[in-house]
């Protein structure tokens, strides 16, 4: 009877061992803390090119276009099979509509999200056929739908089939589609013209050529025009209204009398024969910079610091001038940067530039700054210090980039780097790391002022012993260990972050400090000159972590970090030990005998008794 009990236990253990890996191998969508909401919306007419305008709710007027954003991210291995996207299609003429978007796969539970659209009057939301776009693998360019689908499948119970989605950050993607706020229920464009705003085809310092498209959809008495202004809410300029006729077509107007180096917003507009006004999407352009304007100069964190050499790193925007030279001044005395590198001329192109210097003294602090020079004068960037032999870069305090002939100044910044306008920090999950180990970094930034920051650029410099793997933002550019993210405009109180992973090089030296520097350069809208703030994160290499980290990282990839996952691991180990003991003893009964008594198996013959007795006498558990 005991033999049967043991055999049942063994069979149950084997079944458990087979089932448990299946339970931990299910894919899961959108459960990472850094994930976006599954469903979001934005007013596309007001925000045609702004990626930060996605939210759980938005407002709109009749004639405007709403974009719906459905996000998916397979956060846990394995691959999600037969991944499908569904969206509830709003119906009825209401002042408030909701969208419910869902992501599901054959081996993954459903992840859903709800977003709402509030209208100024009771209207329908009508899907624009052909507007659905698929952006897989963090791509900025849409990809053709698989299996010959048109996009309308997203409204069916079967859903829009995206196929297999691998686990990880890189395969994350989105599906975007658009709806128009209609005057009456029915097809898109019923009783109202279709209006589209196109990109400008030319602009100077005081003018721009605007382009648009209008389709009257058979309606009579349709007129068209453009509106523009220096903000996206109030349009102070307008062109003359011209009759469209009954056929669709493009039209062009020139907006003149504009201010140089200024961002303007514009949109195409049309009015139906019944008096209803329809607007195209709001777009923007920036007028050109007049010649001979002061260049922008920024000093970036140095690269490749050794005992006797370094790569100096800077940024210059000539602001339209073609005769601007760029170079570095450096030395060991902050008040006397007397040594100068060779002068470079990149024409009117704005961008980073680097120059190597050698024959430096070991373990010595140095100071340097970027310099730009043209016919109007000499312009200096902020001063940065470094110490040879790989010492940690000292982050400088923000220094205004303005024309100056006075001695430069530098200040050692605290770990939390901030200015009156901007805060920025970089943190890491690995303070002590081993060769081959993956390290995660996160850079956070925020505009703390009540004014917009018109231009912001984030750069992250990796040391040679860190190899970039992937990031959470598909717009990150990577070149020779330098990550660049064009943040663009930062609205008041707007914040953001960049998360990326890097792998410690297997040749990293024991005790080596891995310093990752982050530099946020920006234009101050209230004062004009460019500024920058720096921060850094330091990890130390411990080669003793190499083997341990690899073992635990491989285990974590299968079991995860939760209590249940580790409990499963303990159960599997116990099952393995049980099976080993069973194989060692064969199918004989294991008799546990204490010193006071011995229990014999029931209903056994003499020969089997002798066998048990022999095992009993030799069992090391009785010793």
What does this structure look like?
The protein has 623 residues and is mainly beta. The protein has five domains: 2-21 and 560-622, no CATH class; 31-182, no CATH class; 194-286, Immunoglobulins (Immunoglobulin-like); 295-411, Immunoglobulins (Immunoglobulin-like, Sandwich), CATH 2.60.40.10; 413-543, ntegrin, alpha v. Chain A, domain 4 (Immunoglobulin-like, Sandwich). 12% of the residues lie in helices and 41% in strands. Strands 1, 2, 3, 4, 5, 6, 7, 8 and 9 form a nine-stranded mixed beta sheet that branches. Strand 24 and strand 25 (377-387) form a beta hairpin. The protein is flat, with a radius of gyration of 33 Å. It starts with a helix and ends in a 5-residue tail after the last helix. The model is unreliable at 19-24, 183-190, 391-418, 547-561, 589-606 and 611-623 (pLDDT under 50).
When the domains are counted, the total is 5
Helix content: 10-25%
Molecular shape: flat
Q: Low-confidence runs (pLDDT<50, min 5 residues)?
A: 19-24, 183-190, 391-418, 547-561, 589-606, 611-623
Instruction: Give the amount of beta strand, in percent.
Output: 35-45%
Work out the radius of gyration.
Answer: 33 Å
Number of strands: 36
Span between termini: 27 Å
Main beta-sheet annotation: 9 strands, mixed
Name the average pLDDT.
78
Q: List the total number of helices.
A: 4
């Amino acid at each position: 009877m005991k033999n049967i009990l043991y055999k049942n236990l063994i069979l149950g253990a084997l079944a458990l061992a087979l089932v448990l890996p299946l339970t931990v191998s299910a894919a899961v969508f959108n459960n990472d803390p850094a994930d976006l909401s599954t469903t979001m919306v934005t007013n596309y007419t007001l925000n045609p090119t702004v990626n930060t305008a996605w939210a759980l709710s938005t407002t709109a007027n009749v004639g405007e276009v709403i974009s719906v954003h459905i996000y998916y991210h397979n956060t846990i291995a394995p691959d999600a099979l037969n991944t499908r996207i569904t969206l509830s299609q709003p119906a009825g003429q209401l002042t408030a509509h909701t969208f419910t978007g869902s992501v599901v796969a054959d081996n993954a539970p459903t992840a859903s999200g709800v977003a709402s659209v509030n209208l100024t009057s009771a209207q329908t939301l009508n899907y624009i056929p052909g507007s659905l776009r698929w952006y897989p693998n963090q791509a900025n360019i849409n990809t053709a739908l698989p299996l010959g689908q048109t996009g309308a499948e997203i409204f069916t119970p079967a859903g829009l089939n995206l196929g297999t989605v691998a686990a990880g950050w890189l395969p994350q993607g989105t599906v975007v589609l658009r709806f128009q706020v209609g005057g009456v229920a029915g097809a898109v464009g019923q009783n109202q013209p279709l209006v589209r705003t196109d990109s400008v085809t030319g602009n100077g310092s005081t003018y721009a050529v605007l382009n648009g498209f209008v389709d009257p959809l058979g309606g009579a008495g349709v007129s068209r025009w453009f509106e523009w202004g220096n903000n996206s809410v109030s349009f102070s300029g307008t062109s003359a209204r011209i009759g469209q006729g009954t056929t669709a077509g493009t039209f062009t107007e020139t907006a003149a009398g504009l201010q140089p180096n200024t961002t303007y917003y514009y949109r195409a507009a049309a009015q139906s024969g019944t008096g209803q006004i329809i607007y195209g999407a709001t777009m923007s352009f920036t007028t050109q910079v007049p010649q001979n304007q002061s260049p922008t100069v920024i000093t970036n964190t140095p690269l490749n610091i050794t005992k006797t050499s370094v790569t100096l790193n800077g940024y210059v925007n000539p602001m339209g001038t073609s005769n601007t030279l760029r170079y570095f001044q450096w030395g060991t005395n902050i008040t006397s940067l007397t040594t100068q590198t060779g002068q470079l001329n990149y024409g009117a192109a704005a961008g980073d530039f680097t120059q190597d210097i050698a024959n430096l003294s070991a373990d010595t602090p140095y100071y340097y700054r970027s310099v730009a020079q043209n016919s109007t004068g000499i312009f200096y960037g902020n001063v940065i210090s470094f110490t040879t032999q790989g010492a940690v870069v000292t982050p400088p305090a923000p220094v205004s980039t303005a024309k100056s002939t006075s001695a430069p100044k530098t200040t050692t910044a605290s770990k939390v780097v901030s200015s009156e306008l901007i805060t920025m920090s970089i943190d890491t999950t690995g303070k002590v790391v081993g060769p081959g180990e993956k390290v995660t970094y996160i850079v956070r930034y925020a505009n703390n002022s009540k004014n917009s920051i018109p231009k912001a650029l984030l750069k992250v410099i990796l040391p040679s012993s860190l190899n970039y793997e992937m990031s959470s933002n598909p717009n990150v550019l990577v070149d020779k260990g330098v990550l660049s993210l064009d943040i663009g405009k930062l609205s008041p109180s707007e914040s953001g972050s960049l998360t990326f992973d890097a792998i410690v090089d297997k040749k990293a030296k024991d005790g080596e400090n891995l310093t990752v520097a982050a530099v946020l350069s920006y234009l101050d809208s209230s004062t004009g000159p460019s500024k920058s703030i720096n921060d850094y994160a330091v990890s130390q290499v411990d080669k003793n972590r190499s083997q341990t980290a690899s073992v635990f990282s491989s285990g974590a990839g299968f079991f995860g970090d939760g209590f249940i996952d580790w409990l499963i691991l303990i159960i599997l180990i116990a099952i393995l030990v049980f099976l080993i003991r069973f194989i060692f003893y064969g199918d004989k009964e294991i008799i546990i005998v204490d010193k006071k008594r011995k229990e014999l198996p029931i209903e056994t013959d003499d020969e089997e008794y002798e066998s048990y007795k022999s095992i009993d006498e030799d069992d090391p558990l009785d010793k």
